[in-house]
Amino acid sequence: MTTAATLPARNFYGCMKQKQRVITLSQFIAEEQQKFPGASGELSRIFRDIKLAAKIVNRDVNKAGLVDILGNHGTTNIQGETVKKLDVLANEEFIAALAAGGDCCAVISEEEDYIRPLNPDAKYIVAMDPLDGSSNIDVNAAIGTIFSIYKRVTPVGSEATLEDCLQPGNKQVAAGYVIYGSSTMLVYTTGQGVNGFTLDIGIGDFCLSHPNIQVPQNGKIYSVNEGNFAQFPLPYREYIKYCKQVDKESHRPYSARYIGSMVADFHRNMIKGGIFMYPETESAPKGKLRLMYECNPMSWIMEQAGGTASTGTERILDVIPTELHQRVPVILGSKNMVSKLMEFLQQTAG
After folding, report:
1. How many whole angstroms separate alpha carbon 176 and alpha carbon 188?
2. CATH of the domain spanning 221-349, picked from 3.50.50.60, 3.40.50.2300, 3.90.1590.10, 3.40.190.80
3. What's the DSSP call for residue 293?
4. From CA 269, how far away is CA 314, in angstroms rounded?
5. What is the CATH number that goes with domain 25-210?
6. In whole angstroms, how far apart are CA 344 and each of 134, 236, 238, 240, 313?
7. What is the pLDDT of residues 254-285, one digit of tens each?
8. What number of other Cβ atoms are within 10 A of residue 163's Cβ?
């Protein structure tokens, strides 16, 4: 049998050269940090803490059917929604990891109605949805974690305030998400493009698998909860009808894909091209998704990947937050698809 030891030297080393270099998340961040002289390393350490918590949550998600962590926790969050047991675990794991790291001065979470102060001598704020798509937990569908990072505006050494936490999305210094699905991926941006890392269980680390992600300018997928169709404003109803019409030139009808987990729907559309919508409805006149925990981080990622993010009336990243759990309508996706929806919205406004 021919082995590496018996291969001619030229052939063996030629094969080695063809192998792609494995780059872990930590290595990637360290190399990126070298491009910015004077970087303190605090941001990279926060990513270290997020990575650790994500691996713990991934473990819990994978064994959810084997232990008593499925189902309702028996309480409701600030939004009035039933809290799942895994929601509680994920929230605790991420806060514990960030607290132990010491590089985060405060955390705001979708699961809590107040600011969670950590190290007053740190300068970064983390906003997070620790377990997005929790309604899918009991049916083994994809769920995720969404996070964003801001630099505080009040002096270091004091407890973080609302002023530190309620910053518009254009002030983010990093944003990302983790998707727990057929594989576990961490996708993030620091304003220098979007990169995706897949968890390699064998080595216990996230490895670069999707460098420089770019969303296609056009897509064939629309993602929206059509169960609320009758409650949508007229322009959205007309656009959805447009998506269903047969037109070979524009490759319609489009495919409807909606999982009910923003991370999963967003990730698919960013990779394949598509549009994600959660407009205002009669029962949720301000929209349903949270500006700080879901819309801001996902909007920045989408823009960094070459897509568009809007409330339907303004750029999401320019919305000035007024409360921790503020909700806004959201449109995210391929630039040309969002542009077409905006035409429907503008025609009605005119």
Report:
1. 4
2. 3.40.190.80
3. I
4. 21
5. 3.30.540.10
6. 32, 8, 7, 10, 12
7. 999 999 999 999 999 999 999 999 999 999 99
8. 10
